[in-house]
């Protein structure tokens, strides 16, 4: 079970965008995440009239290592560690380690 999933709100711990928040767009199998609006780079694209693409300089999000982001706790508005808790019916859920609140609730 992954501790960080697509759609989670995270905060960046290191790098040029340290302290900024964003939503996870995708989780890659290489242990990286793509976060909306973070780790932006400039990409130069050629025009392609067949696909109706205009050329120019485009901003693009690049992957970050999953260890450089932390899940954002909505109650405290701070980064928090995540643990896995097994319920009585055998179902596993993610919980914040600081206050044992369910992440997905």
From TrEMBL:
It holds the Pfam family KOW. GO terms for cellular component: ribonucleoprotein complex; ribosome. Transmembrane segments: none annotated. It comes from the Bacteria. GO terms for biological process: translation. Keywords: Ribonucleoprotein, Ribosomal protein, RNA-binding, rRNA-binding. One of its GO terms (molecular function) is rRNA binding. InterPro entries: KOW (IPR005824), Rib_uL2_dom2 (IPR014722), Ribosomal_uL24 (IPR003256), Ribosomal_uL24_C (IPR057264), Ribosomal_uL24_KOW (IPR041988), Translation_prot_SH3-like_sf (IPR008991). Residues 3-30 form the KOW domain. Gene3D superfamilies: 2.30.30.30. The keyword Cytoplasm does not apply. CDD domains: KOW_RPL26. One of two assembly initiator proteins, it binds directly to the 5'-end of the 23S rRNA, where it nucleates assembly of the 50S subunit. Belongs to the universal ribosomal protein uL24 family. Part of the 50S ribosomal subunit. HAMAP family: Ribosomal_uL24_B (MF_01326_B). This is Large ribosomal subunit protein uL24. The gene is rplX.
């Amino acid at each position: 079970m992954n501790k960080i999933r697509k759609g989670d709100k995270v905060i960046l711990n290191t790098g040029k965008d340290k302290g900024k928040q964003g939503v996870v767009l995708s989780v890659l199998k290489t242990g990286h995440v793509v976060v909306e609006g973070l780790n932006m780079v400039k990409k130069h694209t050629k025009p392609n009239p067949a696909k109706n693409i205009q050329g120019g300089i485009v901003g693009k999000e690049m992957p970050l290592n999953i260890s450089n982001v932390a899940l954002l706790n909505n109650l405290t508005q701070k980064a928090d560690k995540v643990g896995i808790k097994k319920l009585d019916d055998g179902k596993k859920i993610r919980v914040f380690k600081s206050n044992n609140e369910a992440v997905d609730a």
